[in-house]
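Late entry, adenosine-5'-triphosphate complex.
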Amino acid sequence: MFDVLLASGVLAGSFYIRRGGTDAQRIQRICRKAGLYVKYDGKEDTMKLLRSKRGSNFIEYVFRIPEGLSSKDFIKKKDVIEDGLNTSKNTVLLYFKKEKSERKEIEISFDKVLKIKVFNKPMPELVPYENSAKGWNVPIGQSRSASIYHDFEKIPHIVVAGTTRYGKSVFLKNAITTLIVNQSGSVTFTLIDLKGGLTFNRYRTCKQVLTVASDTESALEALREIKANMQQVMDHLMQLEAENVQEAGRKDRHFIVVDEAAQIASAGETDREIKKMKVECEQIISEIARIGGALGFRIIYATQYPTADTLPRQVKQNCDAKLCFKLQTDVASQVVLDETGAESLPFIKGRAIYLTDRKHIVQTPFIENKQIEDLIEERGKR
Ligand SMILES: Nc1ncnc2c1ncn2[C@@H]1O[C@H](COP(=O)(O)OP(=O)(O)OP(=O)(O)O)[C@@H](O)[C@H]1O
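Prediction complete; structure with ligand written out below:
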């Protein structure tokens, strides 16, 4: 009885696979069913396959999209397309063959034509932290094809955004720990966490950490000091007729890490005194973003609520790198990345978009607290 069931199951499976067609055909069918077509003059215009290309771990399908639709319409339906490609129809046969079904993942981009890459293996959901970074690099994570690093000498400031519990704090700890270990004699930090969390607590005793500010007053005091230091470095560079710290041969770099920028934003603050202080904090942070890069000052600016208030224009414009975990809306994604996409990242902790002049989807490294303790134990000791 079981054999009969098995045989009919296998037959059904093969049928489904035949009926399912190639991934290109399935994508076209899913998009049609999801309403991604245009009716005009009594005719139906759907996406057309122009070509396909095989990469080392993916096939890229290139489509012409119907007039009247935009690439954003397709990007919004990314989950629908991806789930459609992974429906049980294809997994029936694999189940009976006792093969493990790998989830197919897709990436959608647009450059005059719609490009949909279908990957044959999902990205890893966990990349354990290891300190393979050199110089002023910090590991950003594993993309589908390479290990990605952020070089703070090339891009001084970075915005880190993402809905709560998706990996911002873990990334901040990864960055701080890596820099303490690799640049123990040259790096200093001002850590600002006004949300009252304990993220930075374990770094409090490190010799590289000048301040851990947990209220507006101490944040302002630390920022005023940084402003005065910037002026001193500026005077020094003037004397040397150097354009930047690299040319002047200065090795010291100062990182200002802001965890939860919304807490330092003046908009919405009702207490007049605190509002005044927050306005000054914002002004100094904007000034560091604008002129601090050449002077050896670096900003890591994290927020879970990206809006025009929490991500001031000067900061955004001068942060040439963005690390964006999953966000709730396409509007929030637009604020951070100037494009949609972060809202349709999968529900995977540590999965992010790293955007500079290039864009990578990465799985950021997971650093455990015990690892941090061990790593900073020696290099961070006062
Ligand atoms: N890179 C990662 N890989 C795998 N799991 C991760 C990764 N980063 C974070 N996590 C998991 O997600 C949890 C929440 O991460 P984290 O504290 O960094 O979130 P957050 O975005 O900073 O949240 P909040 O805004 O509340 O501070 C971690 O405790 C860990 O279990």
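The pocket of adenosine-5'-triphosphate is lined by residues 126, 162, 164-170, 304, 349-350, 364-366 (CB under 6 Å). Will revisit in the morning.
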